[in-house]
Amino acid sequence: xxxxxxxxxxxxxxxxxxxxxxxxxxxxxxxxxxxxxxxxxxxxxxxxxxxxxxxxxxxxxxxxxxxxxxxxxxxxxxxxxxxxxxxxxxxxxxxxxxxxxxxxxxxxxxxxxxxxxxxxxxxxxxxxxxxxxxxxxxxxxxxxxxxxxxxxxxxxxxxxxxxxx
Length: 165
Prior knowledge:
Blueprint: H1 6-19, H2 36-41, E1 50-63, E2 66-73, E3 91-96, E4 110-125, E5 128-142, E6 154-156, E7 162-164
Parallel strand pairs: 3-5
Antiparallel strand pairs: 1-2, 1-4, 2-3, 4-5, 6-7
């Protein structure tokens, strides 16, 4: 019987860890097809519906009732990460009863969440009136700061090494 030496075992485990994917949201009870713009037009059709949405954080603020985050929605890719190379699908608000650190939930960060529609809220984008769907999150995924896509070519080796940007 062949035994793995400690250095070989360490390299094998490191390689497997480097190739591991992030944990995905279970989509069984979320509507992943309806976009925020559609929901804002007909909110009564989506009362108490649960959605899986994501996008780029526009603003975040702590209030007396928790934290509010404004998000510009983008379709999710196969890893459930917002795909900012595609057309945005409207804006939505996230209202969380917890205190979330706004330095972490900062403008420009990518966010994926599963949450329940609690209604809509009228607001302004510049001088234009806007109707925001409002979600109460069940789960939040704040993507690492360097997780934005780029179109630079990449070359991947099976043990997790990456060459290029």
